[in-house]
Specification:
This protein has 426 residues and is an all-alpha fold. The protein has a domain at 1-100. The chain contains 20 helices and 2 strands. The protein has a two-stranded antiparallel sheet with strand order 1-2. The N and C termini lie far apart (97 Å). InterPro entries: TPR-like_helical_dom_sf. This is Enzyme of heme biosynthesis.
């Protein structure tokens, strides 16, 4: 440094005189060395000198200041001390934005984004402050905001609605409406869009009434807008809406873009209304045009379930068999088939009817083997095993029909007709 001419104008940002410039550049070097040596008290001294005397000199001053206070926060011995260092960290961010907010890459949008994330990390109890920090970051970033930042803000907003009385449902609706165009302009952020929609759907603010109010006017102005219809149908389906408005837009969306997913939405909605014929109509229409085996299997499972609840046992069994053939490792078709076998046993009568429960038991046991432990069907499947065992033929009935335990038996009636099983007494 002794060989440098600090009277050169290029050093002007470091001070008014060559002596001041030299000392401030030394202090900048000392700040770096203190951080490298983990001497944070010395680093704090040099940081204060630089901020007081030449804040415009280098953005590295603020980068190192942020590193300094994050380390001090990590080593704080009390909550009060931690809060003091956190406040200092936020001041460093504000000063960095004041002096270097116009930086083309690391300017205001970048600075406020980092500040918001660290505000959330270090001051999680200050809910209002978190919301304000993220709003400032999103406003500064505009369409170039990091999608993760938008989702973090909205998720925290929804958390505040659920857990505090600071946020009203209208605010959730308004912010969802305000931020939705951001994802429309950033199609590459599809994963974050899903998280954004999920936060809204789970917030509790997305009631059917609120959703209808949100989308009614928009769809009146653009009734054939595919993206808008998709968004409305997905959110209202998640909220289990069953009003006239929901059915009208769901059917409209199916006309605009027929798909297995939309057919499933509609089928569930009509099933909830006990309009099973309409539910099966949509599912079968989708099945007629669907080519993907995995999607066909899902449709067939749903058709089988609708058949089961509407007491169309032959139709349910036929669809379940097709679904089973497409994916033999899915436990749900076996679960449906077992119930179909048990349901038809009553219409057979006599020993043949009781023997049908052998096939029902075997099939339900396969369902229990394949269903995930957390499946919504597992509890019913396990309890059904006991019920089926309780109506097996007795030893005497097997004897009078000249059947020995362990022998093979072919079911002769109902939806299980033709299935080979094993003789067992209850």
């Amino acid at each position: 440094m002794a060989q440098q001419d600090f009277s050169d104008p290029k050093y002007a940002v470091w001070g008014d005189t060559p002596q001041e410039r030299e000392q401030n550049i030394l202090n900048s070097n000392f700040l770096k060395e203190s951080l490298d040596n983990k001497d944070y008290n010395a680093a704090a001294h040099y940081l204060k000198e630089l901020l007081d005397k030449c804040p415009k000199a280098s953005q590295n001053t603020f980068v190192r200041g942020i590193t300094l206070y994050k380390n001090k926060i990590a080593r704080a011995k009390s909550i009060a001390e931690k809060n003091t260092y956190t406040d200092s960290l936020m001041i460093v961010y504000d000063l960095r934005n004041e002096y270097f907010g116009d930086h083309p890459k690391y300017g205001t949008p970048y600075i406020l984004d980092r500040k918001a994330r660290e505000y959330l990390m270090y001051k999680p109890a200050d809910r209002k402050g978190i919301r304000e920090a993220f709003r400032a970051a999103i406003e500064a970033g505009g369409d170039n905001t990091d999608p993760e930042t938008v989702v973090a803000y909205f998720s925290n907003l929804c958390d505040d609605y659920r857990n505090t009385d600071e946020v009203m449902p209208d605010e959730i609706i308004a912010e969802y409406d305000l931020l939705t165009p951001f994802f429309e302009k950033n199609p590459a952020a599809a994963e974050y869009k899903s998280q954004f929609d999920a936060a809204f759907g789970l917030s509790g603010a997305a009631s059917c009434e609120n959703l209808e109010r949100l989308f009614k006017g928009k769809l009146a102005a653009a009734p054939d807008d595919e993206a808008l219809l998709s968004q409305a149908v997905a959110l209202m389906s998640r909220a289990k809406c069953d009003g006239d408005f929901y059915f009208s837009i769901a059917e409209k969306y199916y006309q605009v873009k027929p798909s297995s997913e939309t057919a499933m939405f509609l089928a569930q909605a009509f099933q909830n209304k006990k309009d099973y014929a309409k539910a099966k109509t949509y599912l079968n229409e989708a099945l007629d045009v669907e080519k993907d085996p995995a999607e066909r299997q899902k449709l067939l499972v749903r058709i089988a379930l609708v058949g089961l609840v509407s007491n169309d046992i032959p139709g349910a069994a036929a669809a379940a068999r097709q679904a089973r053939d497409l994916d033999p490792e899915d436990g749900v078709p076996y679960f449906i088939l077992a119930q179909c076998y048990a349901s038809s046993a009553g219409s057979c009568g006599g020993f043949a009817g009781l023997a049908t429960y052998w096939a029902a038991y075997d099939t339900m046991a396969k369902a229990v083997e394949l269903l995930p432990a957390d499946s919504e069907y597992m509890e019913h499947a396990k309890s059904s095993l006991g019920k089926f065992r309780s109506v097996f033929p007795s030893s005497e009935e097997c004897f009078f029909n000249e059947l020995q335990e362990g022998a093979r038996y072919t079911v002769t009636c109902g939806t299980a007709a033709g299935i080979t099983t094993t003789v067992r007494a209850r």
